[in-house]
Amino acid sequence: PLGVLFPSIPIANDMNNFFGGGQEQPKGPDPVFAAKTEMEMYTDLFNKIASSCYNKCASRKHRDQDLSLGEMTCTDRCVSKYLESQQLIGGVLQRANESQMQQQQAMQQAQQSMGS
Known about the structure:
Distance between the termini: 54 Å
Helix content: over 70%
Number of helices: 4
Number of strands: 0
Order of helices and strands: HHHH
Oligomer: single chain
Structural class: mainly alpha
Largest sheet: none
């Protein structure tokens, strides 16, 4: 078989697929890429929160291995505010993207009606 002699050459399993017939694989976002990107975004978000809230809330003396009550309260508030602000920004960006898409659709419709 060709696959043994030339492993880099893809071999069609049936003649329909070889000549372009048969079922086509649906084109869409790669789920592995999407998962990897999402994981990178969450890692980045975690690192930013940890860095920002640590710098604001953790005592520089570190006498105890545990956080003090004040440090814990500060950290809790800091994380809460950071996540809330990210959620608000995400909402604003989503509305802006939706508005932009509506404008693009309106432009396409106008161009189509003028071209007809």
